[in-house]
Amino acid sequence: MIRKINRLEDIIIGKLLVLVTLLVFAEVVARFVFNTGIHWAQEATLLLSAWMVLLGCAWAVREKSHICVDALLDRLPAPTRRWVMLFSVAVALVYTGMFGYSSWVYVSKLKMIGIPLEDIDVPKWVATSGLLFGFAMLALRLLELAWEVWKGDADSFHKHREVDFDIEEKNSDNGGKA
């Protein structure tokens, strides 16, 4: 099941990126070649980019590619590091939950009001429901990370540490001698 979710997430993010790129390209061509514009392009680009950013946050947690300052974390013993990481994930889950709840309230009010977007004939609540989907995916990814930390399969928000790259670079410069 999680593999299907991963694949769907990859497909959605990829298609959003292609769509935004093509839309911006079409808008530039329309403006500078044909001296006109696509009146709804800016709003669509903004909304599609927001969806992409929210899903990208969840994707980055899944791929363990978030930027993480872990100078202090690296100095802790493994059991302590594990508890600090679990605490960090718990704080991130609370933060995500707060934003998810606020997004639910916001989208619910937009649905109740029933206003459309300014330039596109779509209800505003439909376009902004990406908030709910994005924060739900982020919560799922944080729960997955917490489980990996609990099992001992992960100890950080990212796979690679800068210090590891520095050591590898130093070793390659010295012919493999540290």
Number of domains: 1
* Individual helix count: 7
Question: How would you characterize the largest beta sheet?
Answer: none
Give the number of DSSP strands.
0
Q: What oligomeric state best describes the polypeptide chains here? A: single chain
Shape: globular
How do the helices and strands follow one another from N- to C-terminus?
Answer: HHHHHHH
Indicate the radius of gyration in whole angstroms.
21 Å
Whole-number mean pLDDT: 85
Provide the β-strand percentage band. under 5%
Low-confidence stretches: none
Structural class: mainly alpha
Distance between the terminal alpha carbons, to the nearest Å? 44 Å
Fraction of residues in helix: over 70%
Short description:
This protein is mainly alpha-helical and 178 residues long. It has helices at 2-32, 41-63, 71-75, 78-113, 124-128, 130-151, 162-173.
Annotation keywords:
178 residues, mainly alpha, globular
Description:
The chain is an all-alpha fold and 178 residues long. The chain has one domain (2-173). Helices cover 75% and strands 0% of the residues. The protein has seven helices and no strands. The chain has helices at residues 2-32, 41-63, 71-75, 78-113, 124-128, 130-151, 162-173. Helix 1 (2-32) runs antiparallel to helix 2, helix 2 runs parallel beside helix 6 and helix 4 packs antiparallel against helix 6. The longest helix is centred in the middle third of the chain and has 36 residues, at 78-113. The radius of gyration is 21 Å and the shape is globular. The chain starts with a helix and ends in a 5-residue tail after the last helix. The mean pLDDT is 85.
